[in-house]
């Protein structure tokens, strides 16, 4: 059985190549199927009619099988148009001849030929010409008298058999192309959804650029203007130099995040995931924020077992955690604590980032992850990192994760990101907003 499938696939794909469009491949495939369906039955009936001493009908059947073989050869050499014309012409001639001489129900196969031709050609002029031709041939079959006596015609049972086969072929051919149409519609719909997603990502990127990157560069321009015009004395210049350094560092981080996000979009919506140890990633991020934390005398407490793992994209997780930790530092009060710890349930490993800061109004927390927020400054007037929580939500969703906010104004917030603990736990993404304490 496997050998039969192997050879059937080999013959049915004659002339097909990887560079073909989906429609062209299916047309080549269908021509091959029709040629194969004509080849073997016509050889069988050629032998059967030869035994029954219907020599002319046997010759017609044999000629039809020869033309079907010729079609396969033309397909193999890429002569697709000639193959189509040969298939349709030979079938029309031989089906008409058999029906005219032996009344074997060949007119129904002429209808099959017409339907196949309309499916194979897109030119409506060809449709009209073929329709007129087939209608004319069928009319002749009913108008012309019998050429051979009834004793030499095929049995009625064989005519019925041919009619049933012709009708079955019509159903199969129509459903074959309906399947192509529906699959194309699904592909078009998927492409439309992908384009909409790409447009949304583009709008997010432009919003972030306009909202979080343009404004700090304007501040930098103002500071450089003051330096150029010597509007700052030596005492205050050091403070402004530190501000410039922080803003440049923040914008460099923001641009890096945007470039990584844009790169992932260009490579498609799917992201490659793997098992990741959480603690080393967070330790590296904390180290990069040491200066910021020390300037506010913050204590960052990391309580994560060394073997804690998640299933996620490493670059995405770095962006997510860097932004959440940056926000925790930004909105924490001086001398406060930032606690980073994990909890595990049946589906997710949750990373919790808790700060002792200004908190979030419950009415505003629901919109944090859905739209770019107005420019905000931290407790010591620090500028934002630039990318924001909209990007975090997008990347969390791509990694099949969830996010939750618990916040109390003037007391602090807990941002919790849940990622799958194992490949079996990857489920439909959802975002939980909010759960206020």
Describe the fold and architecture.
The chain crosses the membrane at residues 28-48, 55-74, 94-119, 126-143, 163-182. Residues 208-423 form the Histidine kinase domain. This is histidine kinase. Its EC number is 2.7.13.3. It comes from Sphingobacterium zeae. There is one protein chain. The protein has 437 residues and is α+β, with helices and mostly antiparallel strands. It folds into two domains: 2-154, no CATH class; 191-425, Heat Shock Protein 90 (2-Layer Sandwich). It is built from 13 helices and seven strands. The protein has helices at residues 2-12, 22-51, 55-76, 80-102, 106-120, 124-143, 156-228, 234-266, 278-288, 290-295, 314-330, 362-365, 388-398, and strands at residues 274-277, 299-303, 309-312, 337-344, 348-355, 402-408, 412-420. The strands form two sheets. The chain has a five-stranded mixed β-sheet with strand order 2-4-5-7-6. Helix 5 (106-120) packs antiparallel against helix 6. The longest helix is centred in the middle third of the chain and has 73 residues, at 156-228. The model is unreliable at 427-437 (pLDDT under 50).
Give a short summary of the structure.
With 437 residues, this protein is of the alpha+beta class. The protein has 13 helices and 7 strands. It has 2 domains: 2-154, no CATH class; 191-425, Heat Shock Protein 90 (2-Layer Sandwich).
Search tags:
437 residues; alpha+beta; Heat Shock Protein 90; 2 domains; two-stranded antiparallel sheet; 13 helices; disordered C terminus; EC 2.7.13.3; histidine kinase
